[in-house]
RNA sequence: GGCCCGUUCGUCUAGGGGUUAGGACAGGAGAUUUUCAUUCUUCAAACAGGGGUUCGAUUCCCCUACGGGCUACCA
């Protein structure tokens, strides 16, 4: 690999969209490529057209872009090895499949789906391989003239790899080390389907070779099919150029058993997609910062050993190392994901949050006119927001009078003295020259003492008058920001509501 | 069933032949803030089991158990 440029490919299937595991694979691919000044290639795996979802391809690109990952080569930005959609490379695959047949490493199989179904049902541990292939309808078992006849008649058929007997094939995984398989356990996988499309097995080998891929990261679920790929690299005569593989640990369900699936999101109330997809809300829509999303995804199965957990994409590129990727699957923890987001919001400058917060507020019908005012508000409240959507609850009262008050917190203990206090406070505010937080607070406390009231008697009511509830930053800071007129207005409105 | 991969607090993990087995999230308690958060302090919480190897194994090896993945003309 030293004399070869690093080229890493990410090959998502557009049939199911991009979920958590997919984005993480993309991320690790990207980190490794960038760290080695290599290329990050996006190849779209649409071999099964029947399951293709309209718009999926653009969705994948949007997801990567949202995460800050830009492919060096992709269907929209092709490089010298274009095209990058498998469906557009269809003609390439047949010749290699036929070549394998010619060399005796593959064969034509004419069995129908029903016949195979029947065998699988009736024969325990049936697999299309060396044990049963002679009794099935293929170019190995049938006489040559019959095979020629079937082919001439365009009888539907597939091309299968002929897996050899009694061999051990193995490779060194970048994460797991030596992994090996007995060929006797491997079945004759289909390489070319009856419709002429390649299966993943053929396509991935041919494309990785033609696109000069040097390293390939994929999910652990692919490990069992590695021997087929190994054999293919060997039979095609490209063994020396086979990429190095890394099989990533799976992301598991937060509860119960198995790998994380789309249904888990709906069931447990968290996103499994980066962006909204097929009617389910993504991390973006739920109020996650892409920086936080990437950060927490990277830490799911990897760490730099320092104990640090907050990293930017750039830092990740710098620190990333394959040997620090874990072997075991990681359970997805939404609480931890939210913690990452809260950390990123706290860390962010108000200015960089502005556009996103504005969008959240606008969606809720709040018209933000003054950007400088918004910046001040964001600085005041961002430490108490976990998701971007929290900015609505935390900021709305800076822009509109509370729609309702937490009356339970004030009404039971309300008294005429308190009404008098606030009426008097209004007239003080009217006369006050400097409407600063400190001044208002001083006046408030002075009046409080004159009236022999305790802070507990009037501080909370004042907050509820301005905010509507028991939350938010220092109440006098809020009053200053609202301004004299609005503060007085809110006291008056609330007084009316409290004394009904 | 067969094959492959894995196994440290509830979760994500650090560590690695001799450690009080460390951190983070979540949880408990407290301080600060006369709101809610933030922040800070603090508590509880783990090496799957059995055999080896060794003066000594959580760490290395084997077995078992458990978990996961694959076993399609899906990826």
TrEMBL record:
This protein's source sits in the domain of life called: Bacteria
Alphabetized, the UniProt keywords read: Aminoacyl-tRNA synthetase, ATP-binding, Cytoplasm, Ligase, Nucleotide-binding, Protein biosynthesis
Which cell locations does it reside in? Cytoplasm
Motif 'KMSKS' region extends across 259-263
Q: Where is the Glutamyl/glutaminyl-tRNA synthetase class Ib catalytic domain?
A: 5-339
What reactions does this protein catalyze? tRNA(Glu) + L-glutamate + ATP = L-glutamyl-tRNA(Glu) + AMP + diphosphate
Q: What stretch of residues is annotated with the motif 'HIGH' region? A: 12-22
Which PANTHER family has this protein been placed in? GLUTAMATE--TRNA LIGASE (PTHR43311), GLUTAMATE--TRNA LIGASE, MITOCHONDRIAL-RELATED (PTHR43311:SF2)
State what protein this is by name.
Glutamate--tRNA ligase
Species the sequence originates in: Mucilaginibacter panaciglaebae
The coding gene here is: gltX
């Amino acid at each position: 690999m030293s004399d070869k440029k690093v080229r890493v490919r990410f090959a998502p299937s557009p049939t199911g969209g991009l979920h958590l595991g997919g984005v993480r694979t993309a991320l690790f691919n990207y980190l490794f490529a960038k760290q080695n000044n290599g290329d990050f290639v996006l190849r779209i795996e649409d071999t099964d057209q029947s399951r293709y979802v309209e718009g999926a391809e653009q969705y994948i690109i949007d997801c990567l872009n949202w995460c800050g990952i830009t492919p060096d080569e992709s269907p929209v930005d092709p490089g010298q090895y274009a095209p990058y959609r498998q469906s557009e490379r269809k003609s390439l695959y047949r010749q290699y499949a036929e070549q394998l047949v010619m060399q005796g490493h593959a064969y034509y199989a004419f069995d129908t789906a029903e016949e195979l179904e029947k065998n699988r049902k009736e024969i325990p541990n049936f697999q299309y391989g060396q044990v049963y292939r002679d009794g099935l309808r293929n170019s190995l078992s049938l006489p040559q003239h019959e095979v020629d006849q079937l082919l001439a008649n365009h009888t539907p058929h597939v091309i299968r790899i002929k897996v050899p007997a009694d061999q051990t094939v193995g490779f060194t995984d970048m994460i797991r080390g030596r992994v090996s398989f007995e060929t006797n356990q491997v079945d004759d996988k289909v390489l070319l389907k009856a419709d002429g499309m390649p299966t993943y097995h053929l396509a991935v080998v041919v494309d990785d070779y033609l696109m000069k891929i040097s390293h390939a990261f994929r999910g652990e679920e692919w490990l069992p099919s590695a021997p087929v790929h190994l054999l293919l690299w060997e039979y095609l005569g490209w063994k020396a150029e086979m990429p190095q593989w890394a099989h990533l640990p799976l992301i598991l369900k937060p509860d119960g058993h198995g790998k994380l699936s789309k249904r888990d999101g709906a069931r447990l109330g968290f996103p499994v997609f980066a962006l909204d997809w097929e009617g389910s809300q993504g991390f973006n829509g739920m109020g996650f910062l892409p920086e936080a999303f990437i950060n927490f995804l990277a830490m799911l199965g990897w760490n730099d050993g320092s104990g640090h957990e907050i990293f930017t994409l750039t830092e990740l590129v710098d620190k990333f190392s394959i040997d620090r990727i874990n072997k075991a699957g990681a359970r997805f923890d939404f609480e931890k994901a939210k913690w990452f987001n809260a950390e990123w919001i706290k860390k962010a400058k108000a200015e960089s949050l502005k556009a996103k917060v504005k969008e959240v507020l606008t969606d809720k019908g709040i018209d933000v006119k003054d950007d400088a005012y918004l910046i001040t508000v964001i600085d005041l409240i961002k430490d108490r927001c976990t998701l971007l959507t929290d900015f609505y609850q935390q900021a709305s009262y800076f822009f509109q009078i509370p729609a309702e008050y937490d009356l339970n917190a004030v009404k039971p203990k309300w008294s005429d003295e308190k009404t008098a206090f606030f009426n008097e406070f209004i007239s003080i505010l009217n006369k006050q020259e400097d409407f600063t937080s400190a001044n208002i607070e001083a006046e408030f406390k002075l009046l409080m003492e004159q009236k022999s009231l305790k802070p507990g008697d009037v501080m909370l009511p004042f907050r509820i008058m301005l905010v509507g509830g028991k939350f938010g930053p220092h109440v006098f800071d809020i009053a200053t920001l609202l301004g004299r007129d609005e503060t007085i207005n809110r006291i008056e409105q609330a007084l009316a509501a409290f004394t009904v």
